[in-house]
User: Which sequence fits this backbone?
């Protein structure tokens, strides 16, 4: 198991925002975290990359129980809003930061590191924008730069908070396709998604969070049904199947 969360509880300001959360993510799968606004998805991701400590429970990443921060940075990469860049850096410099956990103190980038940076830029469609100041990027380009930096870290577990946010349709599909390909090569991918159609199409398994607790876990076919969509997401939708995966036809909000 690549990520194993057991009995996690997170309290902020004395109030519990996650309680008794169990999540297991297998090596080489795309695992989706879905749930309505405020259900605790980002809180769970923040606990995973140790921006907050759970008040109860355990979190194991790539077989390591509570790894130290430096060790964690070598095995897990995350895109998070709080690391958004405000300094005058080029896209290439931002993506290069992804190599830092792999370099020793004062150790310089080698040709192999530069190659990984180039590959990460290419995979996210940013090679042409590599020398631009990140502050001049559009929201979607910034999102792709954050994903490129995470890829440059060459993690075993990739954690992305709403990776399709700000992206036009073409880039949404190309990033989701890229994540599927990376998972086929053995990377464990954990993402939050608002678009349940994407979750149904691209995730191997999903977990539904509702009011800080796990409601259901399983394949999209096992998890998604019209009752759940009504009760948890407050939408009226019809489900069908295409190529063995559920498709959603949303009629509207309840
Ligand atoms: N630092 C904090 N202090 C107090 N409450 C917080 C803090 N961070 C998050 N919360 C609250 O915790 C709950 C869960 O928030 P979280 O961001 O995890 O939800 P989410 O599922 O990611 O939502 P969204 O879909 O809107 O991004 C929300 O009610 C939020 O207001």
Assistant:
């Amino acid at each position: 198991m690549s990520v194993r969360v057991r009995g996690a509880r997170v309290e902020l300001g004395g109030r519990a925002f996650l309680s008794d959360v169990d999540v297991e993510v297998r090596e080489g799968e795309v695992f989706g975290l879905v749930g309505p606004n405020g259900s605790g998805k980002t809180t769970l991701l923040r606990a995973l990359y140790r921006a907050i400590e759970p008040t109860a429970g355990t979190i194991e990443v790539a077989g390591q129980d509570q790894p130290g921060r430096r060790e964690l940075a070598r095995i897990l990469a995350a895109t998070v809003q709080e690391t958004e860049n405000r300094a005058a850096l080029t896209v290439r410099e931002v993506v290069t930061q992804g190599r830092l956990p792999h370099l020793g103190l004062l150790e310089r980038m080698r040709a192999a590191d530069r190659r990984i940076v180039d590959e990460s830029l290419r995979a996210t469609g940013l090679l042409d924008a590599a020398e631009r100041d990140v502050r001049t990027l559009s929201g979607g380009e910034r999102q792709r730069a954050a994903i490129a930096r995470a890829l440059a870290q060459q993690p075993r577990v990739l954690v992305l908070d709403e990776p399709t946010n700000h992206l036009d349709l073409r880039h949404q599909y190309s990033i989701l396709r890229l994540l599927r390909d990376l998972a086929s090569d053995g990377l464990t991918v954990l993402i939050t998604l608002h678009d349940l159609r994407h979750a149904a199409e691209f995730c191997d398994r999903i977990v539904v969070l509702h009011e800080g607790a796990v409601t259901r876990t399983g394949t999209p076919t096992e998890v998604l049904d019209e009752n759940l969509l009504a009760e948890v997401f407050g939408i009226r939708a019809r489900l069908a199947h295409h190529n063995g995966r559920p498709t959603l036809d949303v009629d509207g909000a309840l």
User: Anything to note?
Assistant: The longest helix spans residues 169-184.
